[in-house]
């Protein structure tokens, strides 16, 4: 299934290493298709240049003008610079986290903080990520996070302001705003 980038440009993740870009006509007919090797990290400038080249090959200037509003959503394993970009003060716990980027800039984070007798699930996102929370890359990041939760050898807790996602993922409410992951 393709995700709509603009009214004429669509993208589809083939797997973690490739994405397919598609440019369509005003009537929705495919005009140009390109498979792009991306690896774990996506170079947004490279993808933008490929899309602009595909559109210019099609000769549709109205599409070229609309390409500038495209948002490229990617995810990868967080490094200390990503944590610093999303939090004003670095947390004291040992973290294992996934960062979600909008156009190459960190916009969200999800992960586990190691505490002495348990793991604490956490997540934060900036307003720039809010319209993209249901995109395939964000859902894949959540899926990867859940593999960590499933593999945890200690209890996993989460404190939630909005518990809908935690409940959908299988966390159980144990107190007012505290949720617990049960293994079965």
List keywords for this structure.
alpha+beta; 7-stranded mixed sheet; 4-stranded antiparallel sheet; 5 helices; 11 strands; 27% helix
Radius of gyration (Å): 19 Å
**Poorly predicted spans:** 59-69
Strand order of the largest sheet: 5-6-7-8-9-11-10
- Quote the average pLDDT: 76
Q: Alpha-carbon distance between the termini? A: 32 Å
Strand segment tally: 11
Structural features, described:
The strands form two sheets. The protein has a seven-stranded mixed beta sheet. The radius of gyration is 19 Å and the shape is elongated. The chain is an alpha+beta fold. It has helices at residues 44-58, 61-66, 80-86, 136-151, 164-169; strands at 3-4, 9-13, 18-24, 30-37, 73-77, 94-102, 105-115, 118-125, 156-159, 171-173, 178-181. Mean pLDDT is 76; it is low at 59-69.
Structure summarized in a few sentences:
With 184 residues, the protein is α+β, with helices and mostly antiparallel strands. 27% of the residues lie in helices and 36% in strands.
